[in-house]
Design a protein that fits this description.
The complex is a heterodimer of chains A (358) and B (163). With 358 residues, chain A is mostly helical. Chain B contains six helices and five strands, in the order ααβαββαββαα.
Chain lengths: 358, 163
């Protein structure tokens, strides 16, 4: 490969990254708007409706406000780490999108270890939180970051087990292959055989993104704003951006793992499937993800914050046993080939392989 | 048995789903927001807002400097100094000040006034731009009274049968 080819290749990758990140940032901006609007509606209010028609320009106004504000570094703070923390927080939440497939062929990096990579990226963000809390030289920030760290570590285990179940069901760590394994119809998707795992994954995802009702790291009523209490302006905006990017990521991943990703939900249904065949898979994926994003906002509008020991109890004493039990159930399910989800990967297949080899 | 019921309810998230169902229903309910500058909630004629000093229809100020309002004011927001007026020697206030930061809008001054001079109008959206602006002088209070006399008179007339 000569130099020019290398450059064009690199530029093409950069262009693809921009093509993912720009819509993502826009989606984050409008997720904040949707959140304020939806929570308002659920509380019988109207939500933001002053900036632009129906308040559509509100997120733009917020961004401009945050851009123009000063980033205040508190006295006694470790300046380098203080400014590095938001970057450490946002980088993994953006990087995780590299392995997310938006359609059968539409993926930045078609990695075979996609699932592992995702697991790594979603948990590494905790370093940003810890460093932010420590470098702020503030008690509230430190308490918030400690809470965040223990929460993420606790729920990482349940989430990891849930992903193991997905890996077993899909038979691959490649996100594209996992989606393809659900091909067939809406009843072929993994949400049926993996239903308890879906619930555990979803709730752990909410806890991992520090969203209500698991938002103890922020806990306005107890520790002001938790780990980002000392941040202002653009540094704060980065935390905000990362949190919402993580929300969208968890929503997209739930759609990919359990709800057939880009697959048409009307697959296999006469008339409806041909009628919706023209809709590109990306649209289906985004619609499914939008529903889960709505669910997150809905949860926040509904539930009060968990008490800290309850969070730990839920993570360690409920979710981990549930996932472990279901992993065992799933093992039998797959090996006995109940239903139509795991065709060709059961005992019959195993016997055939072994028989063919000997 | 109740233990199993408890487990069933916990693992099937019964109460959480009930909560979600409630917020889902609220999502589609009629919204009760009053869009303030364009819409306003109804006000009583007894509304206690910005203060004003009234005059008689012939232009004579009502206040006779009896200092009842000053005495009754629970926040000690009113300061009055009295003396004979130079032109005709009648007892008048030489200084009548209300500190709007102290005022708690209880309406006692209005209740105590024997000549309906000090009143609280229905104006509630006003502001001060400089330190010291919060102390309304006699001239300012009279000016407010002159400006809103029609409205004040109407409110008084509407409320009169109930007093």
């Amino acid at each position: 490969m000569d130099f020019m080819q290398l450059v064009t290749e690199g530029l093409w990758i950069v262009a693809k990254i921009v093509m993912i990140l720009l819509p993502l940032i826009l989606a984050v901006a409008y997720t904040t708007y949707a959140e304020r609007k939806l929570i308002g509606y659920m509380q019988l209010r109207l939500g933001p409706n002053r900036v632009g028609p129906k308040g559509w320009l509100q997120p733009i106004a917020d961004v401009i406000k945050l851009l123009m504000k000063e980033v205040v570094v508190p006295s006694g703070a470790n300046k380098t780490l203080f400014l590095l923390a938001p970057i450490l927080f946002i980088a993994p939440s953006f990087a995780a999108w590299a392995v997310v497939p938006f359609d059968a062929e539409l993926v930045l990096s078609d990695t075979n270890a996609g699932l592992l990579y995702l697991l790594a990226m979603t948990s590494i963000a905790v370093y940003g939180v810890i460093i932010a809390g420590w470098a702020s030289n503030s008690r509230y920030a430190l308490i918030g970051s400690l809470r965040s760290a223990s929460q993420i570590v606790s729920y990482e285990i349940a989430m990891g087990f849930a992903l193991v179940a997905v890996l077993m069901a899909g038979g691959s760590m490649n996100l594209g292959d996992i989606v393809e394994a659900q091909n067939g119809s809406a009843l072929h998707w993994f949400w049926i055989p993996l239903f308890p795992i879906l619930v555990v994954y979803w709730i752990s995802g909410v806890a991992e993104t520090n969203r209500a009702p698991f938002d103890l790291p922020e806990g306005e009523s107890e520790i002001v704003a938790g780990f980002h209490v000392e941040y202002a302006g653009m540094a704060f905006a980065l935390f905000f951006l990362a949190e919402y990017a993580n929300m969208i990521l968890i929503s997209v991943l739930t759609a990919l793992f359990f709800f057939g990703g880009w697959l048409n939900p009307f697959q296999g249904i006469p008339y409806l499937e041909p009628a919706t065949a023209w809709i590109p898979g990306t649209i289906w994926l985004l619609l499914k993800a939008a529903w889960f994003l709505f669910m997150m906002i809905w949860l926040r509008a509904t539930f009060p914050r968990y008490r800290y020991d309850q969070i730990m109890r839920l993570g360690w004493k409920v979710f981990i046993p549930v996932t472990v039990v279901w992993l065992i159930v799933l093992t039998f399910w797959i090996k006995l080939e109940w239903g139509w989800w795991f065709d060709g990967r059961g005992l019959a297949q195993l016997a055939q392989t072994v028989g063919g080899a000997s | 048995m109740s233990k199993w019921k408890h487990y069933f309810k916990t693992y099937f998230l019964t109460e959480l789903r009930a909560g979600l169902w409630l917020t889902w229903k609220h999502l589609f309910k009629r919204k009760v927001t009053i869009q303030f500058p364009e819409e306003q909630t109804p006000q009583s004629p007894r509304f206690r807002g910005l203060h004003a000093l009234r005059r008689y229809p012939n232009g004579e100020e009502r206040c006779i400097a009896c200092k009842l309002c000053e005495a009754v004011c629970p926040a000690a927001a009113i300061t009055i100094e009295a003396g004979p007026r130079e032109s005709d020697g009648t007892r008048r206030t030489t200084k009548y000040e209300i500190d709007m930061f102290k005022c708690i809008y209880c309406g006692f001054c209005e209740e105590s006034c024997p000549v309906d001079s000090i009143v609280e109008t229905r104006i509630f959206d006003y502001h001060f731009e400089k330190r010291g602006d919060n102390i309304l002088t006699k001239e300012q209070l009279l000016a407010i009274g002159d400006r809103y006399e029609v409205m004040i008179a109407e409110d008084k007339a509407e409320d009169a049968p109930y007093r």
